[in-house]
Design a protein that fits this description.
3 strands; three-stranded antiparallel beta sheet; mainly alpha; Arc Repressor Mutant, subunit A; 142 residues; single chain
Length: 142
Amino acid sequence: MAASRPDQPLRCYCATLRLLARRLTRVYEAELRQAGMTPAQFELLNHLHARPSSSQSSLATAVDADQTTLSRNLKLLVEQGWVSVQGAAQDARVAEYRLSAAGRKALRRATPHWRRAQALVEATLPRPNAVWRALDELGEAA
């Protein structure tokens, strides 16, 4: 554990990462707002683009979200017309979510804004590849 001065709180990985996550989120929010969506919406649309037909439980696992938050976010995407929902072919009781044509258009419109946010963040990093490696290792350990 890193030492701290008596007048400073202990250095904490969790607190530091949460602080950085809030700051990073603001960068992505500012960029994606110009495309009319939030970072959470962009993430879900991107997952649905990569996995054309996904159940809520598979999406929850992919984005590591609780069912309540995910339900609320999916409901908003369906209301926007960006996502369609229907019963699964194997079991109609299981809802499957798909990116609609409007959702693909919204994702295409938002991607340049997301790329700008990525570039803004990367410009502040001395060694972006080292950061990616560290984040990947941290994700695998968690």
